[in-house]
Amino acid sequence: MRIARIKTAEGARHALERDGRWHHIADPFEEPFQYTGGTTAHSEAVFLAPVEPKVLLGIGHNRTLNDHPLPIQAWHKSVHTVAGPGDAVTAARNQGTVNAEGELAVVIGRTAANLTAENALKHVFGYTCVNDVTNVDQNLVDERNFQGKAGVNYTPLGPWIETGLPDPEQVAIDVYVNGTAQATSGTFNLPSSVVDCLIYVTSWLTLEPGDVVMTGAPATVVPIEPGDRVEIVVEGIGTLSSVVG
């Protein structure tokens, strides 16, 4: 099942895809769904970021990726960096290399605290594509990941949430720049699994419906330049497209 957030004459609305149309719903996290009666044809839909998280977390998979291995770690990224499909990423100038990072994002569906391997995925509402844009050279002077990840529209999300992903641990992720594949990988190459990420994060912080955990870039990091079009293709979900301004 696909859940999107789209523009309508009445403002932003969540909607469920069925029979070639998007059927508007009041609240995607409410069961059962309450349909408002409005619909939008798929061909006419203008997609927004599919969720407006109050908490947006990234995962530092530094267990095996540096010369002083540390356990899995998480960090906060500002929710003010969230952007929708097609929105322009404003690359920070004169601050070093800007990278696109194609990742699988987890959207939490219900209050999640102290999750376990047995129940972690039961707290997931669905999954979407994310581009964790980063000024990577800033990591050398700001190990808290603030400066390099705080740019305008540095977290494109979308185009929708897929609630029925069969196995989030085995999802291919490709990154295209101007139509050419620059990275091909998947969650199967993450040092820490999607479930590991959720267990770790919720051992310290309670997550609520709509919060987002970016699960890390499994060798899907690609330098980008102003004028580029970046596409993050996540198997079973779709394509998230952004332009670099």
Task: Tell me what you see in this structure.
This protein has 245 residues and is mainly β. The chain folds into 2 domains: 2-44, Roll (SH3 type barrels); 56-244, Fumarylacetoacetate hydrolase, domain 2 (Alpha-Beta Complex), CATH 3.90.850. It has one helix spanning 194-204, and strands at residues 2-8, 11-18, 21-25, 35-41, 56-60, 73-76, 82-83, 88-89, 98-108, 124-131, 134-135, 155-162, 172-177, 180-186, 212-214, 221-224, 229-234, 238-244. Strands 1, 2, 3, 4, 5, 6, 7, 9, 10, 11, 12, 15 and 16 form a 13-stranded mixed β-sheet that branches. It has a 5-stranded mixed β-sheet with strand order 8-18-17-13-14, with no helix packed on it.
Secondary structure layout plus pairing:
Elements: E1 2-8, E2 11-18, E3 21-25, E4 35-41, E5 56-60, E6 73-76, E7 82-83, E8 88-89, E9 98-108, E10 124-131, E11 134-135, E12 155-162, E13 172-177, E14 180-186, H1 194-204, E15 212-214, E16 221-224, E17 229-234, E18 238-244
Parallel strand pairs: 5-15, 7-12, 8-18
Antiparallel strand pairs: 1-2, 1-12, 2-3, 3-4, 5-6, 9-10, 9-11, 9-15, 9-16, 10-12, 13-14, 13-17, 17-18
Which secondary-structure class do the elements indicate?
A: mainly beta
Q: Give me the Rg, rounded.
A: 17 Å
User: What is the annotated CATH architecture of the largest domain?
Assistant: Alpha-Beta Complex
- The number of strands is 18
CATH class of the largest domain: Alpha Beta
Considering the protein shown, what is the CATH homologous superfamily of the largest domain? Fumarylacetoacetase-like, C-terminal domain
Low-confidence stretches: none
Beta-strand content estimate:
35-45%
Main sheet record: 13 strands, mixed
Number of domains: 2
Shape: globular
First-residue to last-residue Cα separation? 33 Å
